Amino acid sequence: FVTTAVTLGMRPAAACALAVVLLAAAVIAVAWSVSVGAGERPDHTALWVLAVACALGAIGAGVQAARSHALAAHPLVSLVDTRTGVEGVVTGFDRPLRRGGVMVPLRVEVTGSGQSARVARLDVAVLAREGWRDLAPGTRVRASVMVLEPRSPGNPPGLRALAPPRVTGEPGPTGRAPAAVRERLRV
Questions:
Q1: Which pLDDT band, with edges at 50, 70 and 90, does 4 fall under?
Q2: What SS3 string covers 127-144?
Q3: What is the reported pTM?
């Protein structure tokens, strides 16, 4: 947890370097615990705890480095403050916003349109006013959006819908069932 917090917003190379250093520290702690003779009486428990903590930190830093690299390479990151088309799948229910409209979780699968279309998956939030309310999870959509600056370093950019989405595929049973329960609870 601490490593993820420290590496959030870090460049992928720096997070990867931290992972290597932590992994080396884990190996050194294990080697020291195993190689030290009985006469020197090291605290083996402390060394093993240190080794496990460093190994877990290395895993966290490595995961964050991979996540940061994937995010930096995503085409939406280079399109901040521009309009583009996206295709994707609604991944959850809309949530109302204080200033009106809704926020809809969307897994973008394609960015751009026509010849500039690129397959690129990324989970984002779409801020919208009309046409996005009550879309069931699993609904496939196409939309024209404005790409927004990420709220903080290490997060994906947001999207602001410029028009209602065009539904290109209805949700399967796993999306329809929760939508039906949600609708019944509203009554």
A1: low
A2: EECCCCCCCCCCCEEEEE
A3: 0.63
